[in-house]
Sequence to fold (534 residues):
Amino acid sequence: MKRRRDVGQMGESLLQHWCAEGGVTANRAEHDQAGWDYLLEFPIELVRTDAALDKEPPPHQALVQVKATDAKTRSITVKLTNWLRLAKSPLPSFFLILYYGGRTKCQRAHLLHVDEQAIRVVLETLRRLSAQPGARTSLHTRYLPVRCTSDNELPTPSSAAFVKRLTSSMGPSQAEYVARKQALLRDVGYENARGELSIKVVVPEKYQRGRLDQLLVDFSIGALSSLEVTEAELWDVRFGLKGPEPERRFKGSRLEFVPDSGKPAEVVLRRVTDGGELRLPATVYAPVGIGSFVRPEDIRVRLAFPNASLILAPHPNSGQYDFNIPAPDRPGALKQLAQTARLLQFMADASASESRITIQADRFSLGHLDLTSSFQPPTQLLEWAKLVTLAQEVGSIMNLPPEATVVPLSLWHQAQALAQLHAVLTKDFPNARIALSVDSDTVVPDRPCCFPQLLAVEFEAYTILLVLVHLGPMQYAAANQHRDFIVAVDSTVVVRKQTLGHGEPYPESAPRLLDAAAAPYAATHYVVKWWADD
Fold:
């Protein structure tokens, strides 16, 4: 009786022979459930002559499953569980396919490296099976092919060709190979996305009548700062396929807009009626990642200024505005408050003339805003804007640091001094006149007069101090009044200009500062001494 030969044993014997011939130790798996047949261990090679012996790299190891056959087919099938073990092992893994063709010697040999492409196929197959009921308990009944091609065929079925192909596939460093494979196992299939967040939100009332696309736009640009979340699920997505169950579930939370996708730009607002122009820095927010869900005519852009925003719809050329003025009794950055104030004043002026405002960002037109007389900020708010603007311009002239702060409410109590100080520093006081009453008969009309003045305005951390003299002729205020005079100011001389820190005292007392300012004019001018000596 003809005995049936064991071609599988012939293949394993040939692998052991090739390893012995090539100086590689072949350790056979004790149990066939391992997914591999042999653990190959390469000899230690001392390759670094400049390093201590304990720093030498570890020797190479590899896993090999042997398949021997007499069939002429160029493809064999392997259990998916075996593929899984070899793909997920950090060690280099291979399939060795030996074709005997009914003869005693191997006629052709193929060494298939479980490389990136193979790992991708295995993991994607597993992800697709995850959606099928019972797949987890039936993996051992499923197979993937091992295809033998000219690319993975050994030049000759020999030990030398086998060992050479192994070492070239593994590379010079076992540690580097393992690191690359572990990174591949971690990242493959996640190139486009790592997850999908499914959210159920409470839709605000104004979006409930077929305006969900507008809700997406407004939330994307920060016009809608948060949404109430009733339920949310985070799904793992690999190869574009969701896992069978969500990774996490959330209930009773809020979805908030985080402003990190805006683009800084210089925004130019221009009134059509008179050409008045305002340039301010702003952050431009445009919808991101929702283009396929929203019609072009529903796209909107938000310009974020300090304490204010403009929302523009470029296609229908419409817009809306929103101001959020800080409480006046709280300190705020003077630079940012002034930007808010200028925008408020600019729009109030445009409203008064019912002017259209055209808007550009970095020279790109974003549309326009039509203002009617309905935009009428309260008088106190306009006064706030005026005082803050004056304070910022004074601070700029006096070189206050950009982070300087001010409490707007404190400016109300110093409004007159602030206005005068601003006028002096900007030289904006044409036809200035001083009215005064003198309890003396020694005043000679038309005599040059010197009127000293001390101006001080307190910001939160600084005090701006000016000592000055106003010069000009004195004239009777009226024909029958010999004690009431008008000084027509010809010139104003700033004697001292100083910025003091918080709590820092004047360099001298106020009377002495005024005396010092008047002293150079005592012989030639009538000095109006309105202050008491120390």
About this structure: The chain has eleven helices and 26 strands. The longest strand covers residues 462-478. The longest helix spans residues 334-352. The mean pLDDT is 88.
